[in-house]
């Protein structure tokens, strides 16, 4: 088994989708091994998304990710990174497959409900960005 990192983004929390999304995550066989509700500061979001800092949408992305609380979690499953990205669907919900979390709960490319790490290495980095070792069960 291995692990991935996710955030239920501010739009998911605002719309009351925390329970529904966690239900999908559990139903797909992921075990929650860390979880908290928190709000990212501007500096947090700029660091977390530093890879995108030259992109035209960077300012909008930081505004979005800091405007309210998120739910951060570490998830465990065999093939976690790849299987979780399949569960959430394409970045743009218009392109996301039927039944995926983004198809069901995301409004747009800019407000796409959830994050999923794109590699095992980034899953570990992102997990430690939000959780100490003692919080990762
Ligand atoms: P995430 O990293 O959140 O799981 P992703 O890997 O599917 O998403 P990335 O290309 O890494 O997508 O982009 C990171 C985030 O930046 C997206 O989830 C989305 O919130 C935002 N984003 C990406 N492209 C755009 C865009 N063209 N316009 C607005 N926001 C965008």
Automatic annotation (TrEMBL):
Keywords: ATP-binding, Cytoplasm, Kinase, Magnesium, Metal-binding, Nucleotide metabolism, Nucleotide-binding, Phosphoprotein, Transferase. One of its GO terms (biological process) is CTP biosynthetic process. Its EC number is 2.7.4.6. One of its GO terms (cellular component) is cytoplasm. It is an enzyme of class 2 (transferase). The active site is at residue 115. It comes from the Bacteria. Its cofactor is Mg(2+). Residues 1-135 form the Nucleoside diphosphate kinase-like domain. Its main location: cytoplasm. PANTHER family: NUCLEOSIDE DIPHOSPHATE KINASE, NUCLEOSIDE DIPHOSPHATE KINASE DDB_G0292928-RELATED. Homotetramer. HAMAP family: NDP_kinase. This is Nucleoside diphosphate kinase. It comes from Urechidicola croceus. The gene is ndk.
């Amino acid at each position: 088994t291995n692990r991935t990192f996710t955030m239920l983004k501010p739009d998911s929390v605002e719309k009351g989708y925390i329970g529904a999304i966690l239900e999908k995550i559990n139903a797909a066989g992921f075990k929650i091994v860390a979880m908290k509700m928190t709000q990212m500061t501007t500096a947090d979001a700029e660091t977390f998304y530093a890879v995108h800092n030259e992109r035209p949408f960077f300012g909008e992305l930081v505004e979005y990710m800091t405007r309210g609380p998120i739910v951060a979690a570490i998830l465990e499953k065999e093939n976690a990174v790849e299987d979780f990205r399949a569960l959430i669907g394409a970045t743009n919900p218009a392109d996301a497959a039927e039944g995926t979390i983004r198809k069901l709960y995301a409004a747009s490319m800019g407000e796409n409900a959830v994050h999923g790490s794109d590699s095992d290495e980034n899953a570990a980095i992102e997990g430690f960005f939000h959780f100490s070792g003692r919080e990762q069960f």
